[in-house]
Amino acid sequence: MGDWNGQMSTETESVVARLKSCGLFQTKGLIGGKWTDAYDGRTIEVNNPASGDVIASVACMGERETKDAISSAYEAFRHWSMLTAAERSGRLRNWYNLLMAHKEELGQLITLEQGKPLKEAIGEVTYGATFIEFFAEEAKRVYGDIIPATLPDRRLFVLKQPIGVVGAVTPWNFPLAMITRKVGPALACGCTVVIKPSELTPLTALAAAELAIQSGIPPGVLNVVMGDAPAIGTCLMESPQVRKITFTGSTAVGKKLMAGAAETVKKVSLELGGNAPCIIFDDADLEVALKGSLATKFRNTGQTCVCANRILVQEGIYEKFTNAFSKAVQNLKVGNGFDEGVVLGPLINEAAIQKVESFVQDAISKGAKTLLGGKRHSLGMNFYEPTVIGDVKNEMLIARQEVFGPVAPVIRFKTEEEAIQIANDTNAGLAAYIFTNSIKRSWRVSEALEYGIVGVNEGLVSTEVAPFGGFKQSGLGREGSKYGLDEYLEIKYVCMGNMG
Fold first, then answer.
1. Mind telling me the catalytic residues?
2. pLDDT tens digit string along 253-270?
């Protein structure tokens, strides 16, 4: 264990040195195009979740810095929104090219501060960059309308215009993609942005911002502040100059932001927690179901809002599936994301491990059975064994709330109706998955599920070209696709009289 930790430290040092040499290792905030320390000089440490190493100390900002970031975004808005769509598109295209040119370095940075395996981290960079590419293209397609007039001397026009300054609050589980998915459409429409990345993973956001500067996005159009989350959040909520809040994170924080936005009547889009059911019917192709449920459950060590949180298996296939599933999970290699062949990294921190432990304990105490794993990993630190729990009931904590870890709770069901009832019995409604070979059933169940995203015989559903978002308490609005632009636009109706 000691050797492993020591070896990790040298690894950390060499990766950091490489990132510094190409100018992508920033530790200050970005306000009005200038890299800025916290005004009182305070810093916070960023840790590597696999080893506990301190990677960097970054500026710990608060209200004063956020106010200045908002002011700079507000001033930059006039110029940026007046550029032609083609000009904005060109800058975004440059940014996309730079993100792709540096995908290896950005991937290493994600693995360092977030822990996901390097291959998966580089995959996130490619995925994240596609939002910038897609919205560079969509920037030129913000179309208005002409409405046939009710009187001969009138002309009625509909224009779509950028809403203004956007506050973007992003989580630690996808330190790049959750930013690009918001900033891409905002900038494409002509908005300017103040980003607050997670305090746990700010380095990726700062590296992406450095590349945005290099791509010719003007000063003040994109600002980054991090540190005192409540102070920054409150400042974004209370400022009348911020016209829109976009947030990805927990439902509890989303509700607070929604309440805070009421004071200045801001537009809000929220992508909140999920409780994704993954329903495996008797008539499913076992290989397809195994591959899909493994992918959706254990991606990013179970730390995504669209991860399967409950695996519902029909009784006819229950034993066969759980045995095969447990065997497959047993073969998943756990470790430091820089090591060869690792598919599961650490959880983000000790609090995450404790939450997983408490959920597993609750399930076992109520009669569930551990089929595999069920405890902290021998690697120590923030590692948890990939776990499968059988005989789970929908009343258990692990079926009611997101576990956000590598634990797969399996629930047995009899009929299609029962599966739909169990699946919908939650306040969440982000993603759901079904595995069946019946075309009729796939239509019936897809339509009956109260979820914003449904994967049929497929576990990995996220793509920049499709709308991402949830029903019920999983949020408001959609990200990605042509629908993702609407979140950053106001509709203006112009009535011209005396045209006869």
1. 271
2. 999 999 999 999 999 999
